[in-house]
Amino acid sequence: MKKVLVTGSAGFIGGYIVEELLAKGYQVVGVDNYSKYGPVKKSYDDNPNYELVVGDVQDVELMTRLLEDCDHFIAGAALIGGISYFHTYAYDLLAQNERIIASSVDAAIAAHKKGRLEKVTYMSSSMVFESTDRWPSKEGDEREVPPPLSSYGFQKLAVEYFARAAWDQYKLPYTILRPFNCVGIGESRALGDVEIDSGNVKLAMSHVVPDLVQKVLKGQDPLHILGSGEQVRHYTYGGDLARGIVLSLDHPAALNNDFNVSTAEGHSVLELAETIWRKIKGPDVPFNYTSDPGFEYDVAKRVPDVTKAKELLGFEATTTLDDMLDEVIPWITNAVADGTI
């Protein structure tokens, strides 16, 4: 039974990753300092193959000790959020995430020298394609197009340079994965979220799906959408992302390679909004919306080429937007009723 260390294990995507690892028979060590959501309960907390270490990823001594006893390292810890985060925490997203990735890689290099740690799997982001002029965006384009304008996108591109530099100098094996627009349950209001007016309600969270759902549930009519609504995204189910991430751990084609991890199906924000509206209000209530001024870094299109993951890893994200929303809407409905959103 291989052992995997996951940083950011109490986070949104981290929760899906840990669940998938345990389901596939891995032992898992999670490291999280609860900085985003505070202490949270997870379904796997009492699983005998799961150990949670409440600690700071920037503690290189702690991380080195833990990694020396692991076969894989999924480096997922980061300050992360949606579009409002890019502006509210422009400096912290750069500075803090650089400290996190540098400490993580320092520890991994030291642990790899001891012999057990096989590879680091780095969580990058679709935002490395922020400034692209070509769609769908394929692996390698991030080195040919202008660099991202947001500090978050720029730092995620830096994560990829860390991965390749650690291989070049220290022969630390890597896989780079770029998730696209994760959708699922388990995302709460972050402790540092700044409330932003959006019509007659506050933005609940910085990601579009939970935000639109809570607005409709609270009766907002017309529905307020950031920007024109023509922005195109590939909303990918958290369980699908986790499946692709875990699949890549021991797959020989993933060694020292990079992949977009995403659904092939894209939707505009306006399409998403109307789908949510219909699921909550039914087919007969007229869909009304209005556009609020968008954010500077709200990219018009993020469209991935998913051919490489399909051909080399045999991975496809198969969950439809309808199925994702059928899971997410009841979860957010309960959160609104509880007053947590």
UniProtKB/TrEMBL annotation:
Pfam families: Epimerase (PF01370). Signal peptide: none annotated. Residues 4-261 form the NAD-dependent epimerase/dehydratase domain. SUPFAM superfamilies: NAD(P)-binding Rossmann-fold domains. Belongs to the NAD(P)-dependent epimerase/dehydratase family. This is NAD(P)-dependent oxidoreductase. The lineage of its organism: Bacteria, Bacillati, Actinomycetota, Actinomycetes, Micrococcales.
